[in-house]
Structure formats: C-alpha cells, structure tokens
Design brief:
By secondary structure, this protein is α/β, with parallel strands linked by helices. The chain has 14 helices and 12 strands.
C-alpha cells in the first residue's frame, strides 16, 4: 500500500481549463510513453506517480499503443496499489493508430483506424488497462486520410453519453483537419510537437488556431526528445548555448529555460514531460514561476532558425 500524502501545495494546485467549454489538466503533464523501458516494479511506478502529484503534476498522458500496447497496463497495475489516487489525477489517452505488435497479432501492417467501432473498443480497453471507469480526455492520435468526421463524432458522443470519456481532442492534425472534426463535435485541445528545435506549429497556423478558438494546446517532445541537450549538429549546439546563457540570466537550468520559452507563447500550451527522473519534472515545474520577455523569446528563436526575424 502507498504511504503517499500529498503536500498542501500539491492538493491545492489549480487545474488549467483547456477550453471555454470544458476540460481541465495540470499546466505540466506527465508523459508515460516510455514507462515500459524503465524496467520498474509496480511499487516504483507508483512512487513515480506520487512524485508527480507531489509536484502538482496531476495529469498523465497515455496512448493505447505506447510500449507496444503495454504502458497503460503497467500504469494501471501501479495505480491499483493506491486506487484512491485516481481522484487526484486526470488521465489522457489516444487512439487511432494500429501497430504491428505481439499484443495485436491480428494487425498485419501499421495503419490508421478512426472508425466508430475502433474508437469505442480502444477507449474501453484503455479503461480496463488503466483500471478506471472514465478517461478525462481522449485524442485521435494521428490524422487518418480515411477519417469520416461524422463517424468519429458519433463515437465521441457514444463515449460521452456513457460516461466513459469526459472530453475529446486530437493530436498532430493540420489546422484544416482540426476544423473539419471540430465542425462535427466539440474538441478541447490539440496535442502537437513543439520545441526550440521544432518550430513548425508556430508558423503553420496551428497555434494561431488555438488562440482563435481559445483552446490550450498540449505539447509533446518539448525538449526535442532529449536532442536539445545531446545532439551534436550545429543547430543543436547553437540553441543549447543560447538556452544555457538564458538560464544563467534567469537563474535556472537550460531545460527550465526551454520550458519557459514554450510557456511564454500566448496560446498557453501544456508541455508533456516524458521522463522517469524527478529532477526533469522539477525543471519543468520551475518554469511556471519564470517570466520570459519577448526579446529573450526571440533570442532563442533566432538561435534555432540561424537568422534574425524578417
């Protein structure tokens, strides 16, 4: 059994509304996608969950396919050791990708499936694996060229009315693809990749749309999958040196400066931290207390692009 007792600051940490119409998550989200590689016991996994909660990171990001369809079960096994913690957290999952994996021997190739039957079945399996009676948020993981927006909307409506999923969104869509599905059903967020090494959504209309529709995006790979501090190409070295200099000025780590750069965007994004290290979580949370001015933000942008703004 767990001896977890959240600190007063953790229990009172306010959640962030995702959109004017609903959905709330912690401003920093914990990503569990690598959990199968950590090689942990259920007790160690539970302790990681507790450490997140202690820091006020109460939202946990999953997908049915993570770990070859194993991670949700690993998380659920840990949560079963202290089931009361479910009341203190928000669970997010994603569906729509079919992987070739031992856990799904019927899949003969990697493909997408956004049919009503698949979405409902995937959500119900996620509930079983996570050992919960509802998901706080379910996302379509990737845009499917064969997506029927009306059929996806029916699946969402069925899951919502059954009380199995409270809110819905998408991941990795273009603005046009988001608009199509949003014309049929309510979406509260869009999960996309962004980091000082991945600037695409800043300029392709994705984050403009988030501001226009007043929803907060979720950000995956906010440190470029670790490449921000490990890659040895010229661009990465340039950005790393800039972040280190900014960190010295702001009296924080370079990683915290990178998170602060993301948080500075007016769309108010929610970065996902996919790390087993408590220190990595602390670095992300520390960015919530920083204020980055526009010149500093553009300094990091300039280091990434290799040129000044036009």
């Amino acid at each position: 059994m767990s001896a977890f007792s959240p600190s007063p600051s953790a229990t009172k940490a306010p959640l962030t509304p995702l959109s004017p119409t609903g959905g709330h998550l912690s401003r920093i989200v914990a990503g569990a996608w690598r959990m199968d590689a950590w090689g942990w016991t259920p007790q160690q996994r539970l302790r990681w969950i507790e450490q997140n909660l202690e820091l006020g990171v109460t939202s946990f990001d999953h997908a049915d396919i993570y770990g070859g369809y194993t991670v949700e079960g690993l998380f659920g096994e840990a949560l079963a050791l202290a089931p009361a913690l479910r009341q203190q957290m928000q669970l997010v999952s994603k569906c729509g990708i079919q992987l070739v994996a031992p856990m799904r021997p019927e899949h003969r190739l990697k493909a997408y499936d956004t049919s009503r039957a698949h979405i409902v079945a995937s959500a119900e399996r996620s509930l079983q694996e996570l050992r919960t009676d509802h998901l706080d948020l379910l996302l379509i993981h990737r845009p499917d060229p064969l997506m029927d927006a009306d059929e996806v909307a029916r699946a969402f409506d069925d899951l919502r009315q059954a009380g199995k999923v409270r809110h819905f969104g998408v991941s990795n869509f273009t603005p046009a693809q988001f608009s199509l599905l949003a014309s049929r059903t309510e979406l509260v967020t869009h999960q996309v990749e962004c980091s000082p090494l991945q600037l695409g959504v800043l300029h392709d209309g994705t984050l403009d749309q988030a501001q226009q529709l007043r929803f907060k995006p979720m950000i995956w790979s906010p440190l470029a999958g670790g490449r921000l501090f490990t890659a040895d190409d010229e661009r990465s070295r340039r950005v790393r040196a800039c972040l280190e200099a900014v960190g010295q000025r702001l009296q924080c780590s370079a990683a915290t400066a990178a998170y602060a750069w993301l948080l500075r965007h007016p769309s108010q994004p929610l970065p996902i931290v996919g790390s087993s290290r408590v220190e990595a979580l602390r670095e992300a949370v520390a960015a919530l207390g920083l204020s980055m001015d526009a010149p500093t933000w553009h300094e990091i942008w300039t280091a990434s692009t290799g040129h000044e703004v036009p």
